[in-house]
Design a protein that fits this description.
Helices cover about 75% and strands about 0% of the residues. By secondary structure, it is an all-alpha fold.
Length: about 120
C-alpha cells in the first residue's frame, strides 16, 4: 500500500513541477510540505473529494472542470488546473487527463486495499 501512496505523490509532484511555470511554485511547495508531514494526506483527500467524479474523469468529460465542487481547500489548490484547463492547448489537455486518470487508478487501488483491510479487522 505504501508503494501506491509513494507513486501517487510522485506523479502529483511531477505534475506540479511541470506546471509550475503556469501556476507558480506555491502549490508544489504546499504539496511537499503537507505530504512531508503526512504522506497519505493527498491521496486520502483525493479519494474523498475527487474520486466521486471518476466517471467524468474516465470519460474525459470537460464538465469535470466546470461542474465539480471540491470541498477541501488543499484539493482546490492542487487541482488549480480547473481554473486554467480551458486555456491549455490540446496536447496539454491530453496530458492533464492522463495524469488525473493515473491518480484515479492509484486512488482506487488504495481504496480497495483499505476496504479489504477494514474487513479483516475485528468489529
Amino acid at each position: 500500500m505504501n508503494n501506491i501512496v509513494k507513486e501517487f505523490n510522485k506523479i502529483s509532484i511531477d505534475f506540479l513541477e511541470q506546471t509550475s511555470q503556469i501556476a507558480g511554485r506555491k502549490y508544489l511547495t504546499k504539496f511537499r510540505f503537507i505530504t512531508g508531514i503526512n504522506n497519505m494526506y493527498a491521496i486520502d483527500r483525493f479519494i474523498k473529494n475527487v474520486l466521486p467524479y471518476k466517471d467524468y474523469i474516465n470519460a474525459r468529460d470537460e464538465q469535470f472542470f466546470l461542474n465539480t465542487n471540491v470541498d477541501n481547500e488543499f484539493m482546490d489548490d492542487i487541482i488549480w488546473i480547473k481554473e486554467t484547463y480551458f486555456t491549455l492547448d490540446d496536447t496539454s489537455k491530453e496530458n492533464v487527463w492522463n495524469i488525473v486518470t493515473a491518480l484515479v487508478l492509484l486512488a482506487e487501488e488504495r481504496q480497495k486495499l483499505m476496504n479489504k483491510l477494514e474487513k479483516t479487522l475485528p468489529a
